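Q: Predict the assembly, please.
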Amino acid sequence: DADVTQTPRNRITKTGKRIMLECSQTKGHDRMYWYRQDPGLGLRLIYYSFDVKDINKGEISDGYSVSRQAQAKFSLSLESAIPNQTALYFCATSDPGQGNTEAFFGQGTRLTVV
Amino acid sequence: AQSVTQLGSHVSVSEGALVLLRCNYSSSVPPYLFWYVQYPNQGLQLLLKYTSAATLVKGINGFEAEFKKSETSFHLTKPSAHMSDAAEYFCAVGSGSARQLTFGSGTQLTVLP
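A: Predicted assembly structure:
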């Protein structure tokens, strides 16, 4: 089984709908991240969390919210989806004990907003 | 603040030729540097990382990268390209004081037969 699991892997939704992307991890890491990947733009950070009580906005948080339900679970919500949120979304984890911010990624969720 | 610039969004090489993917970084503190690879329909996989030990870092699949502080570079190389190397490659920078990685825009590598 994958260490970082994202569900769903693919999703098509309509403009204005609320959608939640889920991430769970078995690595025991405290730090979790949500990134968005767009062609030619690389990965951009949406939100990150260093523990269940520590949630921080990233570079592009507008239109998104997150919930850290437990150390192992970090979900991303689009409250009212719009077409320019069509992208590939990645969840990642890291271990502060390593001190070097190496990230471990899930397989990604491909979201299409029509 | 930290940033990454990857020169060349698309690179094509012939099978057996040298692979060179360029990455320059900016960081106000000593950086940690990473190369990740993304195969189609997959997540990102770590190729190699620099964490202030040896400046020449060897990774998986025959790739290596050299940290050059004077040039603020961390270019990725492989002596002989294989068809299976075709993928997108991302350079990323972090630091002890940073709370997350910053990624470059990626380089798509095509390997021609």
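The radius of gyration of chain A is 13 Å. The longest strand of chain A covers residues 42-51.
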